[in-house]
Automatic annotation (TrEMBL), chain A:
Transmembrane segments: none annotated. InterPro entries: AAA+_ATPase (IPR003593), ABC_transporter-like_ATP-bd (IPR003439), ABC_transporter-like_CS (IPR017871), ABC_transporter_ATP-bind (IPR050166), P-loop_NTPase (IPR027417). It comes from Actinophytocola xinjiangensis. Residues 15-244 form the ABC transporter domain. The keyword ATP-binding applies. Keywords: ATP-binding, Nucleotide-binding, Transport. This is ABC transporter domain-containing protein. It holds the Pfam family ABC_tran. One of its GO terms (molecular function) is ATP hydrolysis activity.
TrEMBL record, chain B:
It is found in: Cell membrane. SUPFAM superfamilies: MetI-like. Its main location: membrane. It comes from Actinophytocola xinjiangensis. Pfam families: BPD_transp_1 (PF00528). This is ABC transmembrane type-1 domain-containing protein. PROSITE patterns: ABC_TM1.
Length: 265, 284
């Protein structure tokens, strides 16, 4: 249905996930979270990972972030610019430090990446402004709303200007209205920054609105069921896209795939 | 049927209407908060004063045996006597010095060692059973051994306080460091922070509230244990004052000592609460 897209050749591939499997073994249980994942993330694309909860989206993202080691397979990642960090992560549960002010939350990773304090504060101020957090620099996270905390987490990851931005359901905990606003914001920010994004979500609408491609995962053990090209041209206008017939058709198609998965499991 | 329905719908003569309006507290939140604070402070000071007044009343009415429970006013005048003799400040100074030195040594050592053990799973497996066993030994029971090794001087008493504080702070520090959620340390790892930066910027502040609670509990235990030590192995200090007053049969002096000891405990706790407020401003 989509333009199909040429088969990615090597210099277009940012991350190449090859037959990656992950097994968690705790005392009595053995959970196969991922089974032989094959996935190429192209340079500069916005890739959405979509799947039912528990299918291993977070696990795959954490393996890409080197927070978890794969049990089998391999991942190749291309690091182009040594002056920029390869990746940064927006975690599913915010993970904003309650003991640091909102400003210092964003400054901390910058300081760890060789910025000097003054420079770091300037960069942090810029990104906090981008996410409409100006004026809250000195507040502690527990004194602001959940939506604002999540924006702090996003600002913290964006400020590093990573080549690869890994986002784990960054908007899941927000109410519907706020979610729409932040989707538009993210779309806007990404269109201006053009880094590669892997974006985990369980919302079909969100994946269609934001993604260049959607990797649909199947339930446990997680596998890539199919990869869908999203045909909408950029820059995207969220309202226009939501109203288009293509949107409805794709949405139906993905929904039926997911429903099959849910019935199987 | 229809008659019944219409009957239930009709307002009965006994019907009242309920109106919900802002309470006095909502109409003047600042004033309410101020009055509430005044009330709380007043109670904190007033209740002890009332109890002391009651004691005075009972004593002068002859209800309480004034031989064992001298009335507060008599205790106050004995207090004055002890102060003018110079005995009082000497005793307070001796006790406070032992408490402060022992507390500092014990706590500092426990903080450093606790952080090291808490951040290593292997160290915890190796040492936690031993620490738990040593923690449960009543430290006062070790005093004879300390006296044997270090003699009757200050060292044995300071060490006793240090040991007491050490284990309380150590166990709390290990617990709090080991309990720091990986969701925070993962942030550090994901932005390639050094081990040192993770420890300083993440583990330390995350563990701080519980560690400080341990330090506050330790300060109370330091006071308890030094009094016990001064009963048997000192010729200065508030514990000695109490014990010696029993020997001399002067209950008024005994009470001066007892009240002073509890005041030191109260002050130490208040100081540590202040430290908590200053060091963990995000905890409100
Ligand atoms: N640290 C872990 N230990 C054991 N099992 C885990 C761990 N992390 C995830 N799992 C299991 O792996 C599966 C996939 O989890 P996850 O990646 O969080 O899914 P998703 O993000 O898609 O909801 C789940 O069944 C989960 O219970
Ligand atoms: Mg998840």
């Amino acid at each position: 249905m989509a333009e199909g897209g040429p088969v990615a050749n090597d210099d277009q591939v940012k991350v190449s996930v090859q037959a990656v499997g992950k097994v968690f073994t705790s005392k009595a249980r053995r959970v196969e979270a991922l089974a032989a994942i094959d996935l190429d993330v192209r340079d500069g694309e916005f890739l959405c990972l979509l799947g039912p909860s528990g299918c291993g989206k977070t696990t795959l993202l954490r393996i890409m972030a080197e927070l978890e080691s794969p049990s089998s397979g391999r991942i190749e990642m291309r690091h182009d610019d040594p002056d920029r960090p390869l990746s940064s992560v927006v975690f599913q549960d915010y993970s904003v430090f309650p003991w640091k002010t909102i400003m210092d939350n964003v400054v901390f990773p910058l300081l760890q990446n060789g910025y000097r304090r003054r420079e770091a504060r300037e960069v942090a101020r810029h990104w906090l402004g981008q996410l409409d957090l100006a004026g809250f620099e000195k507040s502690f996270p527990d004194t602001v709303s959940g939506g604002m905390k999540q924006r702090v987490a996003i600002a913290r990851a964006l400020a590093l200007r990573p080549e690869l931005l890994l986002m784990d359901e960054p908007l899941a905990a927000l109410d519907a209205q706020l979610r729409l606003l932040l989707q538009e914001k993210l779309l806007d920010l990404w269109q201006h920054n053009q880094n590669t994004v892997v974006f985990v979500t369980h919302s079909i609408d969100e994946a269609l609105l934001l993604g260049d491609r959607i990797a649909v995962m199947s339930a446990r053990p997680g596998r890539i069921d199919t990869v869908i090209d999203v045909p909408f041209a950029r820059p995207r206008d969220p309202d226009e896209i939501r109203a288009s017939p293509d949107f409805a058709a794709l949405r139906d198609d993905i929904w039926h795939r997911l429903r099959r998965e849910l019935q199987v499991s | 049927m229809t008659a019944d329905l219409s009957q239930t719908r009709a307002p009965s003569a006994a019907a009242t209407s309920k109106v919900i309006v802002p309470s006095a507290r909502e109409r003047d939140p600042r004033g309410y908060a101020r009055r509430r604070r005044l009330l709380e402070r007043g109670l904190a000071v007033g209740v002890p004063i009332a109890l002391i007044a009651l004691w005075q009343g009972l004593a002068s009415a002859g209800v309480a045996e004034s031989q064992y429970f001298p009335p507060p006013l008599e205790i106050a005048s004995s207090w004055g006597e002890l102060v003018s003799q110079g005995v009082y400040f000497e005793s307070v100074l001796a006790s406070v010095q032992r408490i402060a030195l022992g507390y500092l040594f014990g706590t500092l050592a426990a903080l450093v060692i606790g952080f090291a053990i808490g951040s290593s799973k292997l160290a915890r497996s190796a040492l936690e059973p031993t620490i738990a066993a040593l923690y449960t030994v009543p430290k006062l029971a070790v005093l004879p051994l300390l006296l044997l090794v270090f003699g009757l001087g200050e060292t044995s008493k300071i060490l006793l306080v240090a040991l007491t504080c050490f284990f309380v702070v150590l166990i709390n520090t290990i617990d709090s460091v080991a309990g720091v959620s990986t969701k925070y340390t993962d942030v550090g790892r994901s932005c390639k922070a050094s081990r040192w930066a993770v420890l300083w910027h993440i583990t330390l502040p995350a563990a701080l509230p519980q560690t400080l609670t341990g330090m506050r509990i330790a300060s109370g235990m330091a006071v308890i244990v030094i009094v016990g030590a001064e009963f048997v192995a000192a010729d200065t200090g508030l514990g000695f004052l109490v014990w010696n007053s029993w020997n001399l049969g002067v209950p008024e002096y005994m009470f001066v000592g007892i009240v002073s000891i509890s005041l030191i405990g109260v002050i130490a706790t208040a100081l540590l609460r202040l430290v908590e407020r200053l060091l963990t401003p995000w905890n409100r």
